[in-house]
Amino acid sequence: MAFMLLRRLAQAFLILIGVAAITFVLLYALPADPARMIAGRSATAQTVASIRHELGLDQPLLVQFWTYLSGLLRGDLGRSYAQKTEVWTLIVARLPATLTLMAAGIVVEVILGITFGTIAAVKRGGMIDRLVMMASFVGVSAPQFVVALLLYVFAVTLGWFPMSGYGSFAHVVLPAATLGVLGAGWYARMVRSAMIDVLNQDYVRTARAKGLSSRRIIFRHALPNAILPIVAMIGIDIGQFMGGVVVVEAVYGWPGIGQLAWQAIQQVDIPIIMGVTLTSALAIVTGNLIADVIAPFIDPRIRTS
Amino acid sequence: MLKSWLLGTTTAAAILLAPLAAMAEGKDIVVTYKDDIVTLDPAIGYDWVNWSMIKSLYSRLMDYEPGTAKLGPSLAESFEVAPDGLTYTFKLRKGVKFSSGRDVVASDVKYSIERAVDPKTQGPGAGFFGAINGYEDLTGGKATGLSGIETPDAGTVVFKLSRPDATFLHVLAINFASVVPKEAVEAASGDFGKHPVGSGTFTLKDWVIGQKLVFEKNPNYYVKGTPKIDGFTVEVGQEPLVALLRLQKGEVDIAGDGIPPAKFLEIKNSKDGAQMIVDGEQLHTGYVTLNTKVKPFDNLKVRQAVNHAINKERIVRILNGRATPAKEVLPPLMPGYDKDYAGYAYDVAKAKSLLAEAGVGSGFETVLYATNTDPQPRIAQAIQQDLAAIGIKAEIRALAQGNVIAAGGTEGEAPMIWSGGMAWIADFPDPSNFYGPILGCAGAVQGGWNWSWYCNAELDKRATAADSMSDPAKSAERVETWKKIFTDAMADAPWIPVTNERRVVAKSLRMGGEDNVYIDPTRVINYDAIFVK
Structural domain of residue A138, as residue ranges? Predict the structure, then answer.
């Protein structure tokens, strides 16, 4: 176990360096010139050149990457080109909001996903199954529609929750519900197919033959065996939500990392884009690592193999 | 009896006065924007959102009367221009203090402008100060200050120019000339933009990154009775549509991003619509550049032909009527705008015959660049259809803003660019601002903004001559000179002037003030002049 962890950590480190390198090259291959963007419309060519020089953008790509990497290893993400603020400060300022929404969103999607996925699997082919699958299809394929509907009904018409902003429990309900409903579609489909698989296994038939109640079969025997893919999916979601959920954050005025990234992309603010990408990559790697570590505790078969 | 009468009237008076009292208390307003505020550093901030906030946080030697383009001394008490136009002497207003409590002195003015020019600041505004002596030495790294700014005593600033610059007083009114205290800049260690200290109408009380900025009235501001509100909170990250819903519910006073096109008519026709919408002219012209260095646009007749081919009324409709068709380079609010200039009328037959005269009567293929945010691609499509009607097949390249700018500033790259979303809004209300960077030879360089690559040496000479007329008595003559320069430029047709866009701001019913302080020609929202009814 310890050896596995160590190996995975080393892998994670290499992955992060790789992500940094690829993102760096991609960003610098852009035809848009960050110095030109900072300089704005009225700057003379001389001003643009001096800004480029001050930012070190006139140096060879390898030198620039080395400068960035050595900063990174010291924990320095650099300063935003446009804002001149430390990138780390900007990311940290948005972490609480991002983490809150991530946690709340995952709770909602897991609860909805497991509940409806299980019901659909048990009542396979029936009316409820078809309804759930249709709803999940809508959720998966029409996110904007779902967001608009939630916002309109609960914030505008009923006025139960604030339309946008951050700070109280009431503020988190709609964004988390939106994320949850959107994500629940995937979870429900996943749980449904895993459950159908498990319910067809011999040991479930045996349990049924023994005369166990169907509730006991579902909750004690089937669900724990069907839940493993969900753990892996949560690991992926942690990473994805850490990178920001641009649409949901934008609609609900949620001050998360997604908004930061979106604006940075518009402004070709490379240090911020790098910082957010690396934070997200770090979260994906960590999320997967955690999922791998806890998997054996959920499913003992993994431990023995 | 008397007692009950007294009681009755006092109660009535109390009831009558109560709403007034409640309103008087609420002089803090809420403003929303979608994008986060990039910076409040006056040497760096250069977008239309932070522009108006920086205006109010700091003061400058010169400034404009609210809602107008009328220039006058502000932090300066008086000034003198030497007859040769090369020396400007300013006397500072006495007793002005930074929000830190220290007096504003002449050396602060010198420091602030040197800071804006210094390459280490990485600011976009250095070029505006190019006429000050010693500019090249500072930008070239040979000096650490500007030899052309002298401070004989704490209350006097003298500018020595290397050439007459008729726009110099305007330059001292733009944000880059805002006065900042050196010790506060140094204390902020590189992030003054988030820790601003100035001597303007407001101070920044709190900044929660990604959420809100709280501005508080400066009680010691040197113009009595200004500002008129107690403070304003800027909430960022607010989707324009949501901001508008909140405005209708009374949670927001000014929706800074205006009204999304899809909602415009609905709001306009609603009961309170007329009082909520501020729809104001700004110093803007949207245009299509015709690259004079790319075939066949190197041919004047082709450039004239496409000028006749564009149906500008239709483009105005795409913008929901929030624009007027443009005929010339300058917008109508700008001094030097020629209201009698006929321009190139929409005339498909004439366009076709001009193409035939140019020898490309059967049409040709070309590329039209535009930014990829709505409504720009739709406008590009309208232009594409108009061009198709005269046989020109234009491929649309809708790219991120930075990529379009890069293509425009590369010689021989972009045959046509629709400037929507990028250019051009004047930095100050002077016609020269519509020439140098976008039509003059100096802008026709790698990385420049003269995307037509139009360079007319004779016009450049006349432009320089016009900008040398710094004698205020000659200002009418100067404006006439500029007027002629722009109509002569249009004879060469380097652009298709398309629209003069208006800006829209939505405000709540309790907000007072003329429309021109919500869309002020020099600062968009004028936080100094708006008030709560």
Answer: 95-304
Parallel/antiparallel/unpaired status of strands B511-512 and B393-399: unpaired
> How many distinct structural domains can be found in chain A?
2
Q: How far is B37 from chain A (nearest CA, A)?
A: 9
- Which residues does B74 contact at the CB level (< 8 Å), separation at least 6? B59, B60, B61, B62, B63, B173
Quickly count: other Cβ atoms within 10 Å of residue A84's Cβ. Answer: 20
Q: CA angle, corner A193, sides to A187 and A197, nearest 5?
A: 140
> Both A39 and A143 in a single domain?
no
Query: Are residues B369 and B413 in contact, defined by beta-carbon separation less than 8 angstroms?
Result: no
Instruction: Flag if B400 and A48 touch (Cβ within 8 Å).
Output: no
Cβ contact, residue pair A263, B35, below 8 Å: yes
| Token pair for B96 | 């002005």
> Are A175 and A298 part of one and the same domain?
yes
Q: How many other C-beta atoms can be found within 10 angstroms of the C-beta atom of residue B76?
A: 22
pLDDT in tens, B358-380: 999 999 999 999 998 888 999 99
Residue numbers of B between 40 and 79 with CB closer than 8 Å to A: 41, 44, 46
Q: Which of A10, A43, A73 is the last residue of a domain?
A: A73
Would you call A267 and B130 a contact, using CB atoms and an 8 Å cutoff?
Answer: no
**Has residue B20 got a pLDDT over 60?**
no
Q: Is the dihedral of CA B524, B527, B529, B533 positive or negative?
A: positive
Contact B110, B117 (CB under 8 A): no
Cβ-based contacts of B442 with chain A (< 8 Å) = 44
Is B125's CB within 8 Å of A249's CB?
A: no
Residue B87, strand partner residues: B160
Give residue-wise pLDDT tens across range B475-508: 899 999 999 999 999 999 999 999 999 888 999 9
**Do the Cβ atoms of A81 and B190 come closer than 8 Å?**
no
Range of the domain at B302: 284-501
C-alpha span between A56 and A105 (Å, rounded): 41
Which B-chain residues 450-509 have CB contacts (< 8 A) with chain A?
Answer: none
ipTM of the modeled complex: 0.81
